[in-house]
Amino acid sequence: MSALPPDETFATRPAPAPGGGASPGPRSDSFGQRVRTLVGLGEPRARTLVVVLRIIMIAALPVGGLTILFVLTVLSGFSFGLFTASALIALLPVPFLVAWFVWLDRFDPARWEYVAIAFGWGACVATAISLGVNTGGSVVFKALHLPESNVAVFVAPFIEESTKGLAPLLLLLLWRREVIGVADALMYAGLSATGFAMTENILYLGGVYVSGEQLQGPLGAVLGVATLIVVRLGFTGFIHPLFTSMTGIGIGLALRTSNKVLRWVFPIVGWLTAVTLHGSWNGVATLAQRNENPGLIGYLYFLESLPLLFGLVVLALWARTAPGRAVRQVLPEYVRSGWLSPPEVGSLTTLRRRLWARRWAKRVAGQEGARAMRSYQIACTRLALLRDARNHGLRDWEPGDPERKLLGELTEQRKVFTGRDSTVPPAWWDGKRYLVTFPDGEKRAVDPPPGDVMPLPTAPRFPWDLPPRYAPAPPAGYGPGGPGHGPGGPGHGPGYGPGGPGQGPGYGPGGPGQGPGYGPPPGQAGPWQGGGYR
Q: Could you report the per-residue pLDDT of 330-354, keeping only the tens digit for each?
């Protein structure tokens, strides 16, 4: 078997494509590209427009926050103590909801600044706009001699779901690569709704206390606040995220279809679903209040809200594992082309395996190795999602050639932690077989095992950290083999056998900057090139 041709360099080597052809030509779906196409702006002006819009969106956050603060302290008359107490109480469910939505995106973790933007948009901008529109609606309804409570049914759902749903939409348009699929859009929509619910709860808690104190005294005010805490923060704390998640799901589904009609239909249907659910909830609550029959809300809660919540959780869990499925289905193409080795793909398929990979990298290369492994895993995930999108006829999420960028990034990050584990023999992957230096010094080609192999520890460190005389003996066929065998049994590649922590099977000192299980970087022939293995 020959190594890569000497003239096949990183800059010229085509990435794999379905059927073995060259990679599809890059096509950008970024907002800047859309602006250049639709408006006719040149590239510099389109980029400037995107930057300006980003600045406006970020600047809107403190403006909205100051507006809410002005309304609470000046117009509503909240004292500092009342505002602080209401804010602390409203914060109680926030960490749990934020953690849940961020947890959905663990295969391709979102950067915290975008998490903060989405949450801040809902807490400040969406709330300020909705408050203004709802107040204006009350004035109009009053002038038309209509019940002001109808604002909650016919005005609030439209403006609130529109402003909350703008968070994932604006992130999609202005930071295209941050919103790739359903999990991303669902996460940002849920974060925006969580921020909105927090600020709204501050308004309600303080308002209930002020009105209760005026009508029933301090004790009545406290009882009113306690009831509101149980209802809004306990039983119905998920309502706003549930509604806005429909918009996020619509946006996410639109990103995963090449049908131009459905790319518009999915977000619109998602938004209309959110508005309908919100309107029906407010309508039943208004009707229950008029008829003094709170049981109506209970019927809606158990017959609609909880089943929808269960369905949302199931869908969210499915969306959360979508990157793992893409890794298993798509990255083997890069294995056949020599960019990745089979153990690498095996270490990327589940979050548990990724965790152990980072722990192994930290053990052999320190904190720098753990950071490099994390960046490497993210690059591989994005590579799988990009290739999967191309396979389905979708556009790239940024101009240029993101596939080439990701391949270069994972190659650079890999150099940090490969070749750092001295417990396994040198081995390279050439796209078909392992090229292994065995303990007797002979270099041989070894076929990979047929199944999915995880090259990193997948069990707790015990008992592998015990002194050798206390550790259990390895199963037959594993451990140091006879002459001509590596650390695995006969017919196994390097490190295939139960390696302990610190023994990342398939990761050992390879060629310069390489580790077992990794083929030579594109453009570099391995030590076995030409006329057989020497």
A: 999 998 888 888 888 888 988 999 9
Rounded Cα gap, residues 434 and 341, in angstroms: 9
> How many angstroms separate the Cα of 288 from the Cα of each of 229, 237, 294, 428?
19, 19, 5, 70
Q: Using CA atoms, how far apart are residues 121 and 64, in angstroms rounded to an integer?
A: 8
Range name among 20-34, 127-141, 172-186, 486-500 with the lowest pLDDT average? 486-500
d(CA 108, CA 94): 22
Q: What angle do CA 104, 110, 116 make, to 5 degrees?
A: 105
CB 65 within 8 A of CB 198: no
**CA–CA distances in Å: residue 110 to residues 10, 98, 116, 187, 262:** 29, 12, 10, 9, 26
188 contact partners, CB below 8 Å, separation of at least 6: 110, 114, 118, 167, 168, 171, 179, 248
What backbone phi and psi angles, to 5 degrees, belong to 204? -70, -45
Structure token digits, residue 270: 């998602």
d(CA 358, CA 457): 10
* Alpha-carbon dihedral 347, 22, 404, 393, rounded to 10 degrees: -80
Helix (H, G, I), strand (E, B) or coil at 65: helix
Q: What is the percent of the chain where pLDDT is above 70?
A: 76
Q: What is the DSSP letter of 525?
A: -
∠377-381-383 over CA atoms, to 5°?
A: 115
Distance CA 96, CA 94 (A): 5
* Contact between 494 and 425 (Cβ < 8 Å): yes
Transcribe 256-306 into DSSP letters: T---HHHHHHHHHHHHHHHHHHHHHHHHHHHHHHHHT-THHHHHHIIIIIH
Centre a 10 Å sphere on the Cβ of residue 408 and count the other Cβ atoms it contains: 15
The one-letter amino acid code at 179 reads V
Q: Where are the alpha helices (DSSP H) in 229-259?
A: 239-255
**Whether 427 contacts 436, CB under 8 Å:** yes
Per-residue pLDDT tens for 217-256?
Answer: 888 889 989 999 998 898 899 999 999 999 999 999 999 8
Q: Is the pTM of this model over 0.85?
A: no
Which of 192, 157, 168, 303 has the alpha carbon at shortest distance from 249?
168
Q: For the chain, what's the residue count?
A: 534
Predicted confidence band of residue 521 (pLDDT cuts 50, 70, 90): very low
CA angle 185, 187, 191 (to 5 degrees): 120
Each residue's pLDDT tens digit, 43-84: 677 778 888 999 999 999 999 999 999 999 888 888 899 999
- Euclidean distance between CA atoms 384 and 339, whole angstroms: 13
Does residue 93 have a cis bond before it (omega within 30 degrees)? no
Cβ 17 vs Cβ 162: under 8 Å: no
Say yes or no to pLDDT of 486 above 50. Answer: no
Q: What is the dihedral of CA 480, 481, 486, 489, to 10 degrees?
A: -110
